[in-house]
Automatic annotation (TrEMBL):
Family matches, as Gene3D superfamilies: Aldolase class I
Family note: Belongs to the ALAD family.
Coiled coil feature spans: none
Protein name as it appears in the record: Delta-aminolevulinic acid dehydratase
Species of provenance: Allorhizobium terrae
One biological process term in Gene Ontology: protoporphyrinogen IX biosynthetic process
Active site as annotated: 206 (schiff-base intermediate with substrate), 260 (schiff-base intermediate with substrate)
Catalytic activity from the UniProt record: 2 5-aminolevulinate = porphobilinogen + 2 H2O + H(+)
A single GO cellular-component term on record: cytosol
PROSITE patterns reported in the protein's UniProt record: D_ALA_DEHYDRATASE
Length: 337
């Protein structure tokens, strides 16, 4: 018997957390959260034309694709077991105008792509955005009158666009433009058009964030945008206001909720899951992706490790899934085990 009492023994007594961490098998046994391919939604960028795979400089590894190439890529995503994609179009400049009228073209790039995916890759879900920013000459998500983004007029247009997107085959409408009353209006519009089965994933809490920079390069809105989006996106300082906004979306009929950006707003993910019990998704946005890529490419962090870690953290925070530009890479990694 040795009588040498370490100070630590007096403090911990019988409580030793490291027993469960001592071996790979104990760690696997007690792991609380897991990331699977079923958690992934893959956002993709579309361009007009044929045979185009155009790298986005600010997002290494991410391309803008013409519809034919996107069909091939989406087939690969489906084969890997990814449940859904989310599409964002880079519309020709000459088609952009003050009101984003090209969103009401039934055959616009977005709708053309949806129809192609539904035809050639029927077993993957297609999620489409109804924000006007890819279609406006000023890069704002709504209709600009003077220097005001007009709410109700924008909602009317968004509803018409949502019905057209559903007509083209979209499975879930994901409105990201943060106008008031849009979820209820879209729900009524879809139902009136016979699209009762088309869901709504609300970008319920979309913050006015600097993390969207690379995305704006990807769809060529960065050079257009005058001012900021502070009059419709949420102030990054406000968590309770975000919950209130999401509450309205739930009352108006949202089927799923989204938090955007992801990691810096992970407290909101948790609060939303606790508050509503609805499926909650995080959007690991372009700036989050590019940060990880850039640091990885410089050898400053282990990119693969941080990629997997961040996505697992979303699961721990209560998310049901993540929109991530890493989706294909992650799905391949998970398939290898
Ligand atoms: N409706 C706008 C929209 N749709 C998708 C993103 C960002 C996605 C990303 O950064 O990955 C944004 C934000 C913006 O440009 O203000």
């Amino acid at each position: 018997m040795h009588d040498k009492t370490h100070l630590v023994d007096q403090i911990t007594g019988h409580r030793r957390m490291r027993r469960n961490r001592k071996a790979d098998w104990t760690r696997r046994l007690v792991q609380e959260n897991h990331l699977t391919v079923n958690d992934l939604i893959w956002p993709i960028f579309l361009v007009p034309g044929k045979g185009i795979i155009d790298p986005i400089p600010a997002m290494p590894g991410v391309n803008r694709m013409s519809v034919d190439k996107a069909v091939e890529a989406v087939k690969q995503a489906a084969d890997l077991g990814i449940p859904a994609i989310a599409t964002f179009p880079n519309i020709e400049m000459e088609k952009r105008d003050q009101t984003g009228s090209a969103i009401l073209d039934a055959n616009n790039l977005l709708n053309e792509a949806t129809a192609a995916f539904k035809k050639h890759v029927p077993n993957i879900g297609v999620i489409t955005d109804v924000a006007l920013d890819p279609f406006t000459s000023h890069g704002h998500d709504g209709i600009l009158r003077g220097d005001i983004i007009v709410n109700d007029e924008t909602v009317d247009q968004v509803v018409r666009a949502a019905v057209m997107q559903a007509d083209a085959g979209s499975d879930i409408i994901a409105p990201s433009e943060m106008m008031d009353g849009r979820i209820g209006a879209i729900r009524r519009g879809l139902d009136a058009a016979g699209h009762q089965d088309v869901g709504i994933m609300s970008y319920a809490t979309k913050f006015s964030s600097g993390y969207y920079g690379p995305y704006r390069e990807a769809i060529s809105t960065s050079g257009l945008l005058k001012g900021d989006k502070n009059s419709y996106y949420i102030n990054p300082a406000n968590g309770t206001e975000a919950l209130r906004d999401a509450t309205l979306d739930v009352e108006e009929g949202a089927d799923m909720l989204m938090v955007k950006p992801g990691l810096p707003y992970i407290d909101i993910c948790w609060r939303m899951k606790e508050a509503f019990g609805l499926p909650v998704f995080a959007y690991q946005v372009s700036g989050e992706y590019s940060q990880i890529k850039a640091a990885g490419m410089n050898g400053w962090i282990d990119e693969q490790r941080v990629m997997m870690e961040t996505l697992l953290c979303f699961k721990r925070a209560g998310c049901d899934g993540i929109l991530t530009y890493f989706a294909i890479e992650v799905a391949k990694k998970l398939a290898k085990g």
